[in-house]
Amino acid sequence: MKNLKDISVVIPIYNEESNINELYERLTKTINEISSHYEVIFVNDGSDDGAEQKILQISKLDPKVFYINFNRNFGHQIAVSAGLEKSHAKCTVIMDGDLQDPPELISKLYERYKEGFDVVYAKRNERKGESYLKKLSAKLFYRVLERLTSFSIPLDSGDFRLIDKKVVIALNEMSEQNKFLRGQIAWLGFSQSAVGFDRDPRKSGTSGYSYSKMIRLALDAITSFSDKPLLFVSRMGFFISFISFLVILFSLFSHFFLKKTVTGWTSLIISSSFIGGIQLISIGIIGEYIARINTNSKNRVLYVVKNTNIETKTT
Ligand code: UDP
Ligand code: MG
Fold first, then answer.
1. Choice from 98, 141, 217 to test ligand 1 binding pocket (greatest atom count within 8 A of CB)
2. How far is residue 313's CA from residue 264's CA, in Å, rounded to a whole number?
3. 9-64: pLDDT as tens digits
4. Which of 7, 79, 89, 244 is the most buried (most CB within 10 A)?
């Protein structure tokens, strides 16, 4: 490994024009206190504001700043993965570009890293300026995931973290299409430690994570790391079959012995729509897994790069 930097910072950017300058200033100030041998990689995930120009400008002035420009919006996790593929340092920081992850915390992450941990993640004590629904859904999601997986994914932490080179290499070798990086990192099982912080509100602009993107991430997380929903479906199938069997026995009994045919239209409607609903949910759950098998079997490239300065720069 030639000319490995001390630290690399990967930042996915989707419409963060108004945050980039402040982010760059605060980041370089902090990181210069750690080492002057660093790189910053902005991955522009198809922004349609002026973020691309901002990144280009900065990278022209500062030889330590690199960029990867995507052809279109491929998604946050893919953007981070692209940055990790190109990062070339002893350790790498992953952070958001909207200043919700304070750059100043990097020195604390780095200190902890120097104590000998391979993964140092930033754990959110408090989430300021986010809607009640977002906080509640996030909290619920992390708890559900915790119950579904057989290894533990740190609660209440996003992707803001510092990881050692060997974690980056291992991640780059995981070829799945549907990425859930914090789960993948936990699954790898390297030594880890947490540093707490209060998460600031987004500095400006709006969240690029719509509810549909959040649901997709949650489904990716669950289907990538747990088979329990499938187990649940088959158990539910057995349970409902058992109940149906009892109902059948009862119907036959009342027909032949009580000579009273069950005339209940209501019970018929209720049971058939109930079973119909359960079947649809079950097919849906199975479908989520099959869709991911399908995506992975196509084995497409994860993203398409419009342009980058990574090969051309020599620092
Ligand atoms: N982001 C991205 N692609 C997307 C959505 C978001 O690269 O499709 C970036 C975004 O610019 C930010 C980070 O991912 O740096 C986190 O996104 P955001 O702040 O919108 O999510 P939230 O904090 O609201 O969950
Ligand atoms: Mg944010």
1. 98
2. 78
3. 999 999 999 999 999 999 999 999 999 999 999 999 999 999 999 999 999 999 99
4. 79
Question: How far is Cα 92 from Cα 8, in angstroms, rounded to an integer?
Answer: 5
- Which residue type does 10 have? V
pLDDT tens-digit readout, 172-224: 999 999 999 999 999 999 999 999 999 888 888 889 888 899 999 999 999 99
Virtual torsion, Cα 241, 242, 244, 250, nearest 10 deg: 160
Rounded to whole angstroms, the Cα distance separating 5 from 18 reads 28
Q: Which residue from 94, 13, 88, 87 is spatially nearest to 56, judged by alpha carbons?
A: 13
Residue nearest to atom 16 of ligand 1 (CA): 96
Distance in Å, CA 97 to ligand 1 centroid: 7
Domain 5-208+301-308 homologous superfamily, CATH: Spore Coat Polysaccharide Biosynthesis Protein SpsA; Chain A (3.90.550.10)
Distance CA 127, CA 100 (A): 9
Q: What are phi and psi of 270, to 5 degrees?
A: -60, -50
Question: What is the C-alpha radius of gyration for the chain, rounded to an integer number of angstroms?
Answer: 25
Domain limits, the chain? 5-208+301-308, 228-298
The tens digit of pLDDT for each residue in 62-111 reads 999 999 999 999 999 999 999 999 999 999 999 999 999 999 999 999 99
Backbone phi, then psi, for 129, in 5-degree steps?
Answer: 65, 25
Ligand 1 centroid from CA 282, angstroms: 32
- Residue with the smallest CA separation from ligand 1 atom 13 is 96
Within 10 A of 37 (CB to CB), how many other CB atoms are there?
Answer: 14
Q: Which of 207, 211, 212 maximizes ligand 1 atoms within 8 Å of its Cβ, making it the mutation to test the pocket?
A: 207
